[in-house]
Amino acid sequence: MSVRKGLTSLVGVSLLLAVLAHFNTSLGVAPYLLVLATSVLFWVIQATSWNILSGYAGYFSFGQAAYVGIGAYAVAVLTGRHGVSYPVSIVVGGLLGALLALITGAIAFRLGSLRGEIFALLTLAVPFILAAFVRINRDIDGGLGTTLPLPAFPDWIGDFQHLIFLLMLAAATLAVGTALAVQRSRLGRGLSAIHDNEDAAEVLGVPTFRYKMIAIVLSGALGGLGGALLAVRNGAVQPELVFTLTVPLFVIVMAVLGGRRHWAGPVVGAAFVTVLQDELAAQKLDQWGNIILGGVLVVFVVAAPDGLFGRLRARPWLTVGVFVPVLAGLVLSGQYTELDALLYAMVAAIVVAVVVDRLRPVAASHPVPSRTTAAGTPPAVRTAPPPLSAPQPDSGRDLVAVAGLIRDFGGVRALDDVSLSVGQGEIVGLVGPNGSGKTTLVNLLSGALPPSAGTIAIDGRATVGLAPHKVAHTGVARTYQIPKPFASMTVLDNVAMAVMFGRTGASLPAARRAAADHLATVRLEHLAGQLPAALNLHQRQLLEMARAIAAEPVVLLLDEALAGLNPAEIDDAVAVIRRIHEGGISIIIVEHLLRVLNQLATRIVVLDRGVLIADGEPATVLNDPAVVRAYLGRQRA
Amino acid sequence: MTAVQAALSGALIGGLYALMAAGLSVTWGTLRVINLAHFGLILVGAYLSYQLTSAWGIDPMLTLLVSAPALFVVGAGLQWAYDRFNIVEFNSLLVSFGLLMIIIEVSTQVWTADFRHIDAGANPYGTSALHLGPIALPVSRLVALGFALLLMGGGHLVLERTFAGRGLRAFAQDRTVAASFGIDHRRLGLVVGGLAGVSAAVAGMVFALGNTIAPAHAYEWFGTVFAVVILGGIGNLLGSLFAGLGVGAFSAVVAVLWDPSYEPFVLFLAIILALVLRPQGLFTRRAAA
Amino acid sequence: MLEVRGVDARYGDAQALWDVALDVGAAETVCIVGPNGAGKTTLVQTIAGLHRAAAGTITVAGVDVATLPGHRVCDHGVATVPEGRRVFGHMSVRDNLLLGAYRRPARAVHRETEARVYELFPRLKERSGQQAGSLSGGEQQMLALGRALMALPRLLLLDEPSLGLAPVIVDEVFDAIAAVNATGVSVLLVEQDVERALSAASRGYLLIEGRIVASGTTSELRSSADVRERVLGM
């Protein structure tokens, strides 16, 4: 389903709901259902707003109440105390939410270590600071909260309930539409990659900082907008009611319950939790609400962290088949109110979906659907793979030029004055004992670490000081010794990510087509539709290589890409590396197995305790007495 | 003079923050569990002290004889569950957030949302103050500081000087190597979780001495206490103690010299600056890795 | 002292060891040589109980330790000097040593053992109050060795003790290993510096791609074609 089609259906559903609500009395729908629906929509906005950052990118926020509060107070102060018109104050509420998010993100996302946890705790503090500020600065709301005038609106809308329903519906449509468009866009794929493995994402060219900032600002804007509408609905604003921890509890439970990796997850969760909450209130059990929700959160995080939506969607007919008859049966029996019937039908559908999933998991128990071309790949004939930076005539130019490179860790010098150049068409073997600085050199070349001193140029462009994704765009790609695939994406999409965010970039469909070719290069095309968890070590390492070449690098860094493989797999991998090389990519390979290097390398560079001790033809280097001593065993003097 | 008075009495409040931070900091630093439910335990500790004092008319400090063992069991039980289901770091934040909600709601049902306070007759520490010349120091806050020094100083010594403490620190740095020297993380974890529960009982009792108690307080402690944990260096008890005193004094001085309304902002700004400049905490010595 | 029979080890679906069998006698020094990536470190970790063996038995002084949890294996007299030293960098030198004596029997006599370790490595005594992370590589290796000795081992597992150290320091480390061995402690030495390993040990095993492919006295191994070709590269 394309974004356009998705958005069209969403707007269609919204219009239908608007029409139904407009004629609610003639349709026999009780007015309190309209009130309930308005609540549901408010929580859809909030849970969706939360999910755009915290669900998609995995940066958990406890600060949703800050957006709700700042939006509500924008309306309370501007309209309630200064008489500004509602449309203006509502928009300002959204903008202030975005501004707050911008500030929070600019601070929190600069932090390197413990980033997820510190972010969560920072966001926990923000609503309290704002609440304290409002409480102390009495002139903001007069100290007792602010009451708002009834907005003026044309008669055809109906009563105030209709008006606020329509406003919430419009905002919820905007929120869900945004979440849907984000999920299916470059941004959404990037956020998903950040969620799975932020370092690998950055190295593949995903501008992680910028994407996280965009996500948090969208989240803040939508949250603020929803908060502003909440103020309009309630007609009054008090700090205790908007800056409360119930808000993050609700949105987190809704998103965790519904599922965090899909735009529809929070919608499902919000509908269920709000109806449940309302039912508890009707039964005079509202004091149990937070206890039940707290329990749901604990149970779901432990037992089903990926939420309900994936399970419901895996068996749509079963879900509908349980929901509709139960709902109809209960309503027609006349023993239950519509609300009870609705809740029980939802519970029945959820229970059945969860139980069936426990008993007979769908092939990949993961909720992320494989929207790949696995089934529908056009066979055989395919356009030729994009030229992998065809060998250039001026092969005298250095693709990698490293001079005077030094890297210290604490007091230990891991690399000492290393200079090295790699030309077009070379395969350079990088060898040395454990701890000699090989992986450090790879990390410096890929930009994952800054050097303590020295210069690095890739294809003539200096890379020291660039963010890793910018370094990637100069033409370096790397693999990790321990493969770091994006766990939630299919094999094909793992590779497509690298194409999308690579040097040239591409739309997702084009990226998937190119990715299929790269998978063919490493002979993994038969696994395109699988999730990485289904691959063995050898296949995961081949996937690493496919992902690396998909970025269309000029230089590929292979960090112990053959470690842990058996001899047959090693021969297979060597063949793949040759094919990659024939595609016009120069290669630096870190490898212990000398017989592999004898087959592959055009040149060998030896590091020993951070110092480059030999550089030349494989045969010459491997017979150099200094190398034999350092690498193959020192003679006792 | 007002500034000195403010700084001193602020530092004393800081003793309470430090007590609250102690358990959080140690479980985070050593067991990698960020236990938001700890705030719930402090709340329960405060209510237990209130309840026992009101019911039996005993000295509030004696209530620890009941609340400390009770919360030891709860804390150890929580840690057992975290370990059993392998809930660490991120997930521990989520799960303990759910648990916190449950504790707060249950407390609300038992003790209502109204403000409760220990009856003045039963609370010899509530209103008295120690006068040093022109400076008045409320006794309840001196008690907080005393307990903070005792517990955190003692905890620090245990961590530094005993085999169990070394085992815990080693475990925090390298679980595999620690295990190879016979460190059983499950057993140590239960003890640490239980002791965090005890620290919550003490913090709750001390809070009840000088303040009214309501379930919503558990939320209000969040910001400051986490600031203390992070500023002090995660897992560093002495650091938390100094950070608590510093944060208390600093915000009190800002409130007096400037304007109370700036207090949360100045505090927050200080925390952010500290985080950005020294994310490992102000009081952490950083050796080469 | 140590009897390993039919041990397999795997990481997920990658198998690292196949049917490994080896013996270390009382007060013997035995080395395992082999190219990088052969599974030497996995073998050490499996014997130490830090990696669960997928199959086989590991008997230390008559007790099968293969199924014990990691923290119980040291109760049977096994102490490890891990690859890359892995001292506790944020703890003082003395605290690192005392941690080695964590289990009850060693704890009871930790003062005496500490004194003996300082005798063996006077430099550690000079630096006892310093943070372990600030020591040089050689000093850290001595600390890791001293820490293992504090556990009063009957079997010492050494994983790549020469890693990243200057030759003169490596000499010191190997002298210390010989001194420890002379006190009756059995030593299993894993080392990529084949020459040194063979001269320190009396017997050895050649581990290639997760399998033991040759064994014998060190002089037999030195002359073996396999070792010369596949490890020494001659």
From TrEMBL, chain A:
CDD domains, per the entry: ABC_Mj1267_LivG_branched (cd03219), TM_PBP1_LivM_like (cd06581)
Highest taxon, organism lineage: Bacteria
Segments forming domain ABC transporter: 400-634
Subcellular location: Cell membrane
Pfam families: ABC_tran (PF00005), BCA_ABC_TP_C (PF12399), BPD_transp_2 (PF02653)
Keywords, comma-separated and alphabetical: ATP-binding, Cell membrane, Membrane, Nucleotide-binding, Transmembrane, Transmembrane helix, Transport
GO CC entries: plasma membrane
Topological category with respect to the lipid bilayer: Multi-pass membrane protein
An MF annotation (GO) of this entry: ATP binding
InterPro entries reported in the protein's UniProt record: AAA+_ATPase (IPR003593), ABC_AA/LPS_Transport (IPR051120), ABC_transp_permease (IPR001851), ABC_transporter-like_ATP-bd (IPR003439), BCA_ABC_TP_C (IPR032823), LivM-like (IPR043428), P-loop_NTPase (IPR027417)
Residue intervals passing through the bilayer: 31-53, 90-111, 118-136, 160-182, 213-232, 238-257, 288-305, 317-336, 342-359
Stretches for region Disordered: 367-394
Signal peptide: none
Name of protein: Branched-chain amino acid transport system permease protein
UniProtKB/TrEMBL annotation, chain B:
Cellular component aspect of the GO annotation: plasma membrane
Keyword vocabulary terms for this entry: Amino-acid transport, Cell membrane, Membrane, Transmembrane, Transmembrane helix, Transport
Gene Ontology terms, MF aspect: transmembrane transporter activity
Stored PANTHER family: AMINO ACID ABC TRANSPORTER PERMEASE PROTEIN, BRANCHED-CHAIN AMINO ACID TRANSPORT SYSTEM PERMEASE PROTEIN LIVH
Family per record: Belongs to the binding-protein-dependent transport system permease family. LivHM subfamily.
Organism this protein belongs to: Asanoa hainanensis
Lineage start: Bacteria, Bacillati, Actinomycetota, Actinomycetes, Micromonosporales
Keyword Metal-binding tagged: no
InterPro entries listed in its UniProt record: ABC_transp_permease (IPR001851), BCAA_transport_permease (IPR052157)
Identification of the protein by name: Branched-chain amino acid transport system permease protein
Pfam families: BPD_transp_2
A GO biological-process term: amino acid transport
Keyword RNA-binding appears in the UniProt entry: no
Domain of life: Bacteria
Bilayer topology annotation: Multi-pass membrane protein
Localization annotation: Cell membrane
Residue ranges crossing the lipid bilayer per the database entry: 6-26, 33-50, 62-81, 93-112, 132-159, 188-210, 264-283
From TrEMBL, chain C:
Membrane-crossing residue ranges in chain numbering: none
UniProt-listed InterPro entries: AAA+_ATPase (IPR003593), ABC_transporter-like_ATP-bd (IPR003439), ABC_transporter-like_CS (IPR017871), BCAA_Transport_ATP-bd_LivF (IPR052156), P-loop_NTPase (IPR027417)
Taxonomic superkingdom: Bacteria
Keywords from the named record: Amino-acid transport, ATP-binding, Nucleotide-binding, Transport
CDD domains in the cross-refs: ABC_TM1139_LivF_branched
Residues annotated as domain ABC transporter: 2-234
SMART domains tied to this protein: AAA
Keyword Nucleotide-binding among UniProt keywords: yes
Disulfide bond is among the record's keywords: no
GO MF terms, alphabetically ordered: ATP binding; ATP hydrolysis activity; branched-chain amino acid transmembrane transporter activity
GO BP annotations, alphabetical order: L-amino acid transport
Protein family (similarity comment): Belongs to the ABC transporter superfamily.
Name by which UniProt lists this protein: Branched-chain amino acid transport system ATP-binding protein
